[in-house]
């Protein structure tokens, strides 16, 4: 490349007169630019799409379609991008200039083109182009940062589960969907038993570790795409099971208890063997009067009962069934929606 301040560009040169093209092309190539040439508007648009040049030098007066037409078409192919288009014209009227800019052109060069003016304009376009690229890059970075901030804002840092804020959003969505589709929705409040004792005996850091492990287990237990495990706060978790009936919820809870037993997290307090959890279940096909608060308060009441009955169990508000007494076992173990075993 010759000694100048322009970086090499890929330039699409469109002019129906071969002699003009030859002069300009030679001038541009002497400065190290790569030149793509064509003599008509239609093939110019095709080349523009195929080769994505860095800049376009576009004759205005051409047979068939003129340069303004080509500029319009080029702009249509890059709604979010911007490639500099400089018109080459023998016309000097204000009206022509305005029409060209209106059609998507950025500047005008009047024939015969002065090499000094040509390179000055190319440099100016390059500057604008690189600023625009930086802006696009910054915008992309900003979008990525926003997306990760958004993800962080709904994540509980200790367990990695969805936090209360994320839960509120999902609860609202699932409640609306269940109401609309007339499908059951199960909400469980899961609380670690005797956790104050755990902390008091093993210390808060060890307590955190225990919560992390339980959070992981709950997350892994929620296998269906719309199932959700969330940290409700403190040592309390929420499990949301869309499309899951009373019987399905009991089946899920029993499975969870089994996994907890297999995990056998030791409880550090004297007289205690393993960490257990209790759960309150609320299942309903929501109607117009069902709210997030009413679901949570029924699950909370059921959790209170589970605790009072001796902990290490799940209790269902609507059926008053207890996972440890076998009340709900009479053939109601199909978690799938629409089962004939549903109890509503
Ligand atoms: N380590 C740790 N402890 C927490 C966290 N959040 C809440 N806790 C503790 O969890 C304990 C909950 O105690 P309680 O509400 O009395 O419940 P519990 O001791 O589990 O008793 P039951 O629920 O009746 O079985 C309190 O000591 C809280 O300080 C946390 O993020 N990390």
Task: Give the key terms.
344 residues; alpha/beta; Rossmann fold; Alpha-Beta Plaits; five-stranded mixed β-sheet; 47% helix; 16% strand; binds guanosine-5'-triphosphate; EC 2.7.7.65; CheY-like_superfamily; Nucleotide_cyclase; Rev_trsase/Diguanyl_cyclase; diguanylate cyclase
Topology:
Elements: E1 10-14, H1 18-30, E2 34-38, H2 41-51, E3 55-59, H3 67-76, E4 85-89, H4 94-102, E5 107-110, H5 115-153, H6 164-181, E6 185-192, H7 195-202, H8 204-221, E7 228-233, E8 236-242, H9 246-263, E9 277-284, H10 292-308, E10 314-316
Parallel strand pairs: 1-2, 1-3, 3-4, 4-5, 9-10
Antiparallel strand pairs: 6-8, 6-9, 7-8
This protein binds guanosine-5'-triphosphate (GTP).
Residues 158, 191-197, 199, 204, 207-208, 211, 234-235, 307, 311 line the site of guanosine-5'-triphosphate.
Enzyme class: transferase
Protein name: diguanylate cyclase
EC number: 2.7.7.65
Short description:
It contains ten helices and ten strands. It is an alpha/beta fold and 344 residues long. Strand 1, helix 1 and strand 2 form a beta-alpha-beta unit.
